[in-house]
Design a protein that fits this description.
With 551 residues, the protein is of the alpha+beta class. The chain is built from 16 helices and 21 strands. Helix 6 packs across helix 7. The longest helix has 23 residues.
Length: 551
């Protein structure tokens, strides 16, 4: 087992030799990471010299915990026996215990016993092997390295986990946080290093990063979970009641569910009895409201009911903001809503005057981190990349099928840009390596517009517009053979792009969405996409601990 040992700055090599000399029966190995640094001597000549990569730290591998305990005191300091100094008479006074300045990292924490100090200073073999590999090969290029007292598992609960895609840290996963030191802001990468520590690496923005999965806890995570719950209930309501407005139905249920119920109190009723009766009345009322939903949607509805529970006058505005009257669900979602036939990869759902194509697709090839080994904190399974794409099938002017994907407020924000702002966005996409999104906005396969539903078909006359991208196919629009039409549309979306045969027509749109979701630079655009375009799935490995279960 490896442990972090704190020593005096600039005395790392001497302490390493002393530890080897005094504890040969306990220490198997000591690692002192070094890096080269260029300096100019007194004669103006450039020279290279080696210095510790981390001043004041050694990494010690011990044979066993029991053996280690014999050589440290209760505070985690290394101790050894030596002959005591001669007394005045010249006689030896025996042996005395001497403490070295080297100690386990957590020895400074008050209230820790010896076992806790050892546990909190331990680094597991996987973290240590990775650190040794990169420090031996790339130590000269790793800047601002430090060991900090932060628990990595706590960080990934509150922040998005990112992966480094290039440079000496390629393949590392961690959390990016902004740190302010002496008035200077710095974006640092925090990676797992031991039980209660992290490696902190400076100036991480110069590398390409991608987001692997979202934060699991906190306000932002709760909002993302609410969006997923809304989408699942909306999809279910659209399938069960295709002629009704699913968003309006859900808003009405939530508002009714949280209404305050009055209970008549008699003079003889105690406070305990009144509270019990009030609770019983409230539970009966809420169960009556929830009975209007299928049992499979109850857990999602409780999430929303708790999130929107508020005694305020603007609850209507909050519900309308979170549950707008969008006819078509976001482009990519974790759930279908409608039941998918056995063995099929798509289904047609007619609701609210539109024909919706729901297509099961696997996006594994579009996620940048799929090429890397699974992360041990959230190992991705193939099902983690399975999504459902939602399209409206509308008649184009020539009688063919126009395929429309809703990008909601993301596209509304895009359409509101001036010509100069649009050109600046395209330049930013190129500079910040959003190649797929740039291709989508400049290619001719998908067109961006606020697409009005055709007034020529009476079935559509009460439905609002859909904001998003559309593609005109060569498939004839025929409602009498909707299933056959949908099958031909799926085949058309799988066709390769004329200007980029490596991408299909569908992948050109999906790749732009995935790229924007994974990006760490254009954050305003990413926030719009998270809600209105790509509702990211909760990885299977995290399902049991996801915040849904904490409500």
């Amino acid at each position: 087992m490896w442990l972090i040992v704190r020593v005096e700055d600039f005395k790392e090599q001497n302490t390493k030799e002393d530890l080897y000399e005094k504890y040969p029966d306990a220490i198997k190995d000591i690692y002192l990471p070094l890096c080269r640094k260029e300096h100019v001597d007194a004669r103006g000549v450039k020279r290279l010299r080696f210095r510790p990569l981390l001043y004041g730290f050694l990494f010690v591998k011990v044979k066993s915990v029991s053996c280690l305990k014999q050589h440290i005191n209760h505070k985690g300091y290394f101790v050894y026996k030596q002959d005591a100094a001669y007394g005045r008479t010249g006689n030896v006074n025996g042996q005395q215990t001497v403490s070295m300045r080297a100690h386990l990292l957590c020895s400074h924490v008050q209230g820790y016993d010896q076992q806790t100090i050892i546990a909190r200073s331990t680094i597991d073999n996987e973290d240590m092997e990775r650190f040794m590999f990169y420090s031996n090969r790339y130590a000269d290029n790793i800047e601002g390295l430090a060991i900090v007292d932060k628990c990595y598992k706590d960080l990934i609960g509150e922040h998005d986990v990112v992966r480094v895609l290039n440079g000496p840290l390629e393949g590392w996963t961690g959390v990016v946080k902004q740190v302010k030191h002496k008035g200077v802001k710095d974006r640092r990468l925090f990676v797992s290093f031991g039980n209660d520590h992290c490696l902190s690496i400076s100036d991480i923005r110069k590398y390409d990063l991608c987001i692997e999965h979202e934060a699991r806890h906190g306000q932002r995570s709760a909002e993302v979970g609410v969006w997923r719950a809304i989408d699942q209930i909306i999809g279910h309501l659209q399938a069960q009641h295709p002629t009704e407005s699913a968003p309006a139905t859900l808003r009405a249920l939530l508002k009714t569910y949280n209404l305050k119920q009055s209970v008549r109190r008699t003079a003889a009723m105690s406070d305990v009895a009144y509270a019990r009766q009030s609770q019983e009345v409230e539970v009966r009322y809420q169960n009556k409201v929830m009975a209007q939903l299928d049992a499979s949607m109850h857990s999602n509805f409780r999430i929303l009911a708790k999130y929107f529970k508020a005694d305020r006058s603007n609850i209507d505005e909050a519900l309308c903001e979170f549950i707008p009257d969008h006819t078509l669900r976001p482009f990519l979602t974790p759930t279908a809503g409608s039941v998918m036939p056995t063995g099929a990869d798509h289904v047609v759902l007619t609701h609210n005057g539109i024909v919706e194509l729901i297509w099961r697709c696997n996006l594994r090839a579009l996620f940048s981190f799929a090429q890397y080994a699974p992360d041990r904190y959230a190992p991705p399974a193939d099902v983690d990349y399975e999504y459902f794409a939602h399209f409206a099938l509308l008649p184009a002017d020539g009688g063919q099928v126009r395929v429309v994907a809703s990008w909601g407020d993301f596209y509304d924000h895009l359409a509101s840009l001036t010509a100069g702002e649009h050109d600046q966005l395209l330049a930013d996409l190129v500079a910040k390596k959003y190649t797929n999104m740039h291709h989508l906005l400049t290619s001719t396969s998908w067109h961006g517009a606020k697409v009005p539903l055709s007034p020529k078909v009476s079935l559509y006359h009460t439905v609002d517009s859909i904001s998003g991208f559309y593609h005109d196919t060569a498939v004839n629009y025929d409602l009498s053979h909707a299933d056959s039409m949908a099958t031909q549309v799926v085949a058309a979306l799988k066709a390769p792009l004329p200007d980029n045969p490596s991408l299909s027509i569908f992948n050109a749109l999906a790749a732009a969405a995935v790229e924007m979701w994974q990006g760490t630079r254009l954050l305003i655009w990413r926030q719009l996409l998270q809600r209105h375009v790509l509702l990211h799935k909760v990885p299977v490995a995290e399902m049991e601990t996801h915040y849904y279960n904490h409500y």
